[in-house]
Write a structure and sequence with these properties.
392 residues; 3 domains; FAD/NAD(P)-binding domain; eight-stranded mixed beta sheet; binds flavin-adenine dinucleotide; D-Amino Acid Oxidase, Chain A, domain 2; seven-stranded mixed beta sheet; single chain
Length: 392
């Protein structure tokens, strides 16, 4: 066998987490030899709701990527509902709804423009040696970042399990009346926790879907059941729908330490999907950028074996409070009373709405405004005159 090609950094998977890793590394060390490996050719689809939080663009700007979505139509209304209770408001900052075929290809282009080499390659095997990590016996790197998604081969080789997981189905359908210019989320009433969504793409179509948490003690829902539950929560949403596809979401609720050493995990491979909303692109880009920077710093200091520990420290600093607060919020949200109190409080107070959106989309925490709003909503609900509040 010929000697493996050697790289400073090999990134397995070129989704948002992988592209952000390459960008984070190359922004900190433009001279680094970085290879992005993906089993697919780009552009490629990725099953997703396509909702992109504005914070993703903030992170990308930090690594030199600007104007990525300037040609897209922003969406600044969000409607949250459950069983007739509705909170609909303008969001503090507009979000985007961008098919992943477009978003991910643009991110890969940005990484390649920054100096990364993109190779089509499906990684099946990873061996750690004292001075390098070797992938499939042919690609060697000082540091490897596993950014290979929910079913990560790198995570498997490291012997780590996936933990709590949701399953969701999405399709593209004509945007329903009353759902234009809006991201609509309708929480489930029967299969907890669950929700259906309709996110307007701005071109006459909406990304529509439904997802729920998987439980060990009940069978995973079939495709037909997922479609049925979507239609039950958002009547008419599935009409004319196409390109239905399902995928797992590895949630961030389990406590895990990021791996130390030369092999790092980011994004879905690190199980970082927000358990409240299914948001994962922000976490993917956030951990990708920190992993890229950590790898670059460790390589610069001639200590690639410290990349993992440096990344773990950065993730603790940047994301840990948010992860703890979302885990707590997800536990609380198992109670329908809490979900309903959250909706009533959001309908009554823009600040509560904004803080909950921040918790669901980026690095937000359970703030005093949220605690106070929930308390007030509970009190209103138990008063005899406190019937459900309607939309703002
Ligand atoms: C139905 C659904 C709806 C969602 N909606 C939203 C939403 O609206 N907003 C949001 O922010 N998040 C959403 N998410 C979550 C979001 O899709 C993920 O969190 C996000 O894609 C994670 O990015 P990633 O780069 O970690 O992984 P991925 O985007 O999955 O990228 C992984 C890449 O690795 C490649 N790969 C995999 N295995 C290998 C291998 N062995 N060798 C080489 N390459 C490999 C894949 O081809 C892929 O390109 C949703 C998820 C689902 C399933």
């Amino acid at each position: 066998m010929s000697a493996p090609t050697h790289w400073d950094l090999a990134v397995v998977g070129a989704g948002p987490a992988g592209a952000a890793t390459a960008l984070g590394a190359l922004c900190a060390g433009p001279e680094l030899r970085v290879v992005l490996l993906d089993r697919a050719d780009f552009p490629r689809d990725k099953t997703c709701g396509d909702g992109v939080a504005p914070h993703v663009l903030d992170l990308l700007a930090e690594v030199g990527v600007t104007g990525l979505l300037d040609d897209r139509v922003p969406v600044d209304r969000l409607r949250l509902g459950r069983g007739g209770l509705v909170a609909e408001r303008r969001t503090a900052r507009p979000a985007w709804v961008v098919p992943r075929r477009i978003l991910d290809a643009r991110l890969v282009d940005a990484a390649v423009a920054a100096g990364a080499r993109l190779l089509r390659h499906r990684v099946r095997d990873l061996r750690q040696h004292t001075d390098a990590v070797v992938l499939d016996g042919e690609i060697s790197a000082a540091v490897v970042v596993g950014a290979d998604g929910a079913h990560s081969a790198v995570r498997r080789v490291l012997g780590r399990s996936r933990g709590p997981t949701a399953l969701a189905l999405r399709g593209y359908a004509p945007v329903g009346p009353g759902r234009r210019g809006t991201q609509v989320i309708e929480f489930g009433t029967r299969h907890q926790p669950s929700y259906a969504w309709s996110f307007d793409l701005g071109d006459g179509l909406a990304n529509v879907g439904y997802g729920e948490l998987l439980h060990e003690d009940r069978p995973a829902p079939t495709r037909a059941q997922l479609l049925e539950r979507l239609e039950a929560l958002l009547p008419g949403a599935t009409g004319g729908g196409r390109h239905w596809a399902g995928h797992h979401l590895p949630l961030s609720t389990a406590r895990r330490r990021p791996p130390a050493g030369r092999v790092l995990l980011v994004g879905d491979a690190a199980c970082l999907v927000n358990p409240l909303t299914g948001e994962g692109i922000h976490s993917a880009v956030a951990t990708g950028v920190t992993a890229g920077r950590a790898a670059a710093a460790a390589l610069r200091d001639g200590r690639p074996e410290e990349a993992g520990e440096r990344h773990a420290r950065a993730v603790r600093r940047v994301l840990l409070p948010h992860l703890r607060h979302t885990a707590l919020a997800a536990r609380l949200a198992r109670s329908t009373h809490v979900v309903e109190a959250g909706l009533r409080a959001s309908a009554a107070d823009q600040r509560v709405f904004d803080d909950l959106v921040e918790l669901g989309l980026a690095r937000g925490r359970l703030t005093p405004a949220v605690a106070l709003g929930l308390g007030r909503a509970f009190l209103t609900a138990v008063r005899p005159s406190g019937g459900p509040q309607e939309a703002v």
